[in-house]
User: Fold these one by one.
Assistant:
Number 1:
Amino acid sequence: MRGMSETQTGAPLLPILIYPDSVLRKQARLVTPADADEVRALVPSMFATMYKAPGIGLAANQIGSLLRVIVVDVAPKDQPAPIALINPEIIAKSDELATQEEGCLSIPDQYAEVTRPARVKVRYQDLEGMKKEVEADGLFAACLQHEIDHLNGVLFVDYLSALKRNILLRKLAKALKERQAG
Ligand code: ZN
């Protein structure tokens, strides 16, 4: 998700894939112990890329990897609270819904209100392979759901009406064309 955080970590930056890149529509696969080295190298670069954008979340699909890895930091930028979630899975969600304005680093400069469960509980593994759970509400809950969606090839525009989605994607196409021309 797009946001205002910015921190320097020194890890190499990765190019962010832009809609309609087909990797954004692919299902990412579970990380296994055999992927440990790759994930350990990937995560610092994902954080660096996310902060630089700047964004508050990034999923591996967005930088061309199909491992189930997301990074998130919804804290104020002077108090960074980075979390890397390996194999994240929503194990509970509230009936209550909440609407937040969302954006996406792969759909630059386009925003829309998206309604999702207000609270979620997510199970994941940390970088050491330890099983963890986190409960989230507010922006954190929306961000986790947005990023986990990416691992399943789902984008926030999929939640919009066909009309709103088409308007947004037309604006994106026009902006990208202007960017190329300019
Ligand atoms: Zn996104």
Number 2:
Amino acid sequence: MPYPNRRDFLRQAPLFGVAGLAAGCATASNPEPEAVRPVVVSTWQHGQAANAAAWEVLTSGGRALDAAEAGVRVTEADPAVRTVGLGGRPDRDGVVTLDAALMDGSGRCGSVAALEGFVHPISVARRVMEVTPHVMLVGDGARDFALAEGFTPTELLLPETRREYQVWLRDNPGYRPPINVENHDTIGLLTLDRQGGLAAACTTSGAAYKYHGRVGDSPLIGAGLYVDGEVGAATATGWGEAVIRACGSFLVVELMRQGHLPAEACRLAVERVIAKNPDYREIQVGFIALDRYGRSGGYCIQDGFDYAVYSPSQANEMIVPPSKLGQHE
Ligand code: SD4
């Protein structure tokens, strides 16, 4: 379905229902839905452990940004997760390089990319936001900053991941990074606190065996994550290059601003990704979104993506969203 222009959207508005319109513009005859708070939503199975930590912060009265950071730190420190932080797969030169970003509903944000040697890039990103005049630091500069801020350097390449890498190197004499649907699993986590504050955090070791220096969507504000306190929050997972081409998470938030419910906003953003990536059958991209009323949703290209929702009515439930190639073709 093509992206609707304003006239088409208004014509189709009844299809999205009163609640859908209310996301963008509440009126006397179209009142705002009652907000559900707090809520945490995050990508993939490992999102459940991250959600639990974020939920703890939110139910103790903590703020959305603190909860988002606390949540993804759990995944970053888990050596069993091969796509985030400690234990993450290396690039094609055998170096683990990390991308991470966070943002809150007021537009405050911080980011690091191609950072080597720290378990918690998300906390380095937070310091970038808090103590520098910048949004993003990369590579050696990010590393110097992390050291100056007192973060402890750590070897992130674990023996098992090193062995896997050596097998990959042996079996891939062409030395090309793989582009396939299994080559990902970022944690992206969205929070809505009791006070109505929104935040997002996203952290990853990126595409396995990528070129050294490659930066994906995850640390790019607007691509890997985006938050607008008047609307909602979104984050992306999957093949970052495809997400960047569509400025994916910003697009999801803007679609919610126009009145689309989170799931529909994610679906339309996936359609845009597909339109800009002719190889879409070979890749996975998924979005999740949370609006300021606590409603959440997701959509992806391929089956296989799931996400976890923790709210007063959803006890850290895994949700399997619809997908373009699985259920809609
Ligand atoms: C990237 N989007 O670097 C990230 C990878 C990922 O789930 O794991 N997404 O392209």
